[in-house]
């Protein structure tokens, strides 16, 4: 297994990226890592992590895609960027998966145009595992496609379902359509039509479709995979982050009120830490782009070493799951007649 | 000031509704309450609350709109329902505002068709005050209109802004457009077009438009009014509720872990209560339907007496604010050329 890592992407590149990737290589014998980036900088960062494991190689790339670069074209105008070089290697079979904490938009464009979608897949989708009830919730799409068709949503359902079962170990994942009510008459035209397409797939036994689901119930554990257009999916994801951060701040204020509450904070210290850890994006790792021919994992822009290490493990799991093969074998089910 | 209350709407009708309305009448001298519903039941419920204040009247209505009735037509097929009778009284000037904890869909249809929208307003919108940072966040629309046009969104911005400033005391409320990024190139076509319409209104000094806003920033207090189509607005609202309930459950588990954590729970008891109260829908009261000629307030279906009492106060505030007058005076600003 060989994972290609964009050493230059993200707020803490290259130091934290290099450190996380090297930690993964040390922890998993047999795992090969390719660090792509400005050679001198990557080497300097690696030197801080002790002797370089033999399983870690460095590939030089002289450019870096920055947040202000146009995401749609950056990978072309910066042909020698770490992202373009790394994705090209992935495409050419010089690695099994690619991890980057760089610009989401650039990675999506570059991934789609260089690695390419599985034939028949209309759009790649972003599918984070949201750390709510139980094993968590696969939210697909969460922002790659603001405007969607019924076929996109049907495909997202399959992509999310394959990912949940093959990479996350969820058996017969329960797929819900994010909607503003549970009855089949709820929502806009897109939801009405998508419901019918998903129901047909469910009735035929191809998906474990449980119907429409409201955001509240999905968070409570009402389904394993929630299918959404990228606009409302992104609103859901960002709202979860926002409320999490709001609640954290309020609790902090509550525990700082008096000597008594400060004592209370000490008494629940380990519980609070576990709770915070649970909602910590660093624990989760990255968001896979589903529907591409090879695994591409987007790590948070603010990723530190541990997040990158986890994203590398996630990339391994995704590569082992051979999602592209599963998608190809089922692509006929994912078409919507016109 | 005379508030008409649907005594039969909601899970706890008529007892809790009647109690809440009578409590409001007792607390506010000069406030008149009209309880509409099955006379015998309402009288029996009122008898449980002690002597009926002179300011509380009961109007008989022999039918009740149930949750399983078709929301679009229930008010017509059940002409003698508490909702239809109450809204007709409102329309005829026999009261200043109407409060109901009954079916949201039925209330929206009945409110729109009986009380009617202000001339020029395309759609009524639901605008709850979400109890997040600071004074809270007006979320408009949160579910009445799954499918929206640019003109709807522009109108929602004005409706929310007028409500925030005139009824909630927010000065020059900061209006943000819910989007999946802050740049003006973000989002789907609806958002791109709405951004331009809102920016023009902001540049002309009619609205304090601060641009696109992500759900996370809105929750953190980045704006006072967030403008959304009813689909994504509903997803945001339900996600907030879902995460709130999820966090509450997790915290409870944390505090129940050991003797030490139980002691901690005692030490932060008052803080926890304040925190819970803050997020409690009963404290907030109801959701106004903005854009109608007279105030209609939807209380939670699960409302108990305190929630109804608060919804009555909210109805008073809405009536005093004369939102309809403000909307009428500015309706020309809310039109989008075709």
Descriptive labels:
48% helix; 338 residues; 5-stranded mixed β-sheet; homodimer; 12 strands
Summarize the SSE layout with pairings.
The structure is a homodimer of 338-residue chains.
Chain A: E1 2-6, H1 15-27, E2 32-37, H2 39-47, E3 56-60, H3 74-77, H4 82-91, E4 97-100, H5 104-115, E5 125-126, E6 129-130, E7 137-140, H6 150-167, E8 174-178, H7 189-203, E9 208-213, H8 215-222, E10 225-227, H9 230-255, H10 259-267, H11 269-278, H12 281-284, E11 287-290, E12 296-298, H13 305-321, H14 323-330
Parallel strand pairs in A: 1-2, 1-4, 2-3, 4-12, 7-10, 8-9, 8-10
Antiparallel strand pairs in A: 5-11, 6-7, 11-12
Helix pairs in contact in A: 1-13, 4-5, 6-7
3D structure, described in words:
Two copies of one chain form a homodimer. With 338 residues, chain A is of the alpha/beta class. Chain A is 48% helix and 14% strand. Chain A has helices at 15-27, 39-47, 74-77, 82-91, 104-115, 150-167, 189-203, 215-222, 230-255, 259-267, 269-278, 281-284, 305-321, 323-330, and strands at residues 2-6, 32-37, 56-60, 97-100, 125-126, 129-130, 137-140, 174-178, 208-213, 225-227, 287-290, 296-298. In chain A, the strands form two sheets. In chain A, strands 3-2-1-4-12-11-5 form a seven-stranded mixed sheet, sandwiched between helices. A five-stranded mixed sheet of chain A has the order 6-7-10-8-9, with helices on both faces. In chain A, a hairpin with a 5-residue loop joins β11 (287-290) and β12 (296-298). In chain A, α1 (15-27) crosses α13, α4 (82-91) runs parallel beside α5 and α6 (150-167) crosses α7 (189-203). The longest helix of chain A is centred in the last third of the chain and has 26 residues, at 230-255. The radius of gyration of chain A is 21 Å and the shape is globular. In chain A, 56% of the residues are buried. At the A-B interface, α8, α9, α10 and α11 of A face α8, α9, α10 and α11 of B.
């Amino acid at each position: 297994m060989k994972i290609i890592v964009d050493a230059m992407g993200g707020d803490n590149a290259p130091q934290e990226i290099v450190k996380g990737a090297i930690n993964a290589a040390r922890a998993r014998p047999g795992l090969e890592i390719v660090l792509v980036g400005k050679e001198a900088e990557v080497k300097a960062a690696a030197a801080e992590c002790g002797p370089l494991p033999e399983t870690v190689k460095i590939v030089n790339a002289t450019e870096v895609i920055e947040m202000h670069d146009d995401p749609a074209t950056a990978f072309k105008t910066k042909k020698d960027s770490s992202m373009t070089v790394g994705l090209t290697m992935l495409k050419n079979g010089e690695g099994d998966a690619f991890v980057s904490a760089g610009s989401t938009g650039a990675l999506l464009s570059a991934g789609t145009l260089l690695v390419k979608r599985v034939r028949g897949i209309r759009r790649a989708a972003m599918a984070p595992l949201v750390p709510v009830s139980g094993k968590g919730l696969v939210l697909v799409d969460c922002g790659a496609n603001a405007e969607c068709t019924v076929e996109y949503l049907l495909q997202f359902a399959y992509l999310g379902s394959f990912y949940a079962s093959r990479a996350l170990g969820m058996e017969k994942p329960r797929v819900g359509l994010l909607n503003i009510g549970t009855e089949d008459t709820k929502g806009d035209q897109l939801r009405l039509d998508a419901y019918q397409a998903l129901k047909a797939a469910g009735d035929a036994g191809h998906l474990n479709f449980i119907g429409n689901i409201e955001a509240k119930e999905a968070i409570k554990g009402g389904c394993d995979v929630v299918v959404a257009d990228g606009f409302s999916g992104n609103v859901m994801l960002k709202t979860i982050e926002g409320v999490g951060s709001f609640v954290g701040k309020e609790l902090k204020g509550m525990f700082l009120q008096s000597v008594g509450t400060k004592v209370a904070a000490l008494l629940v210290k380990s519980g609070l830490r576990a709770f915070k850890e649970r909602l910590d994006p660093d624990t989760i790792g990255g968001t896979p782009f589903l529907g591409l021919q090879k695994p591409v994992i987007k790590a948070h822009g603010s990723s530190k070493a541990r997040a990158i290490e986890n994203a590398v493990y996630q990339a391994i799991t995704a590569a082992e799951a051979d999602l592209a093969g599963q998608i190809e074998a089922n692509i006929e089910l994912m078409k919507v007649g016109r």
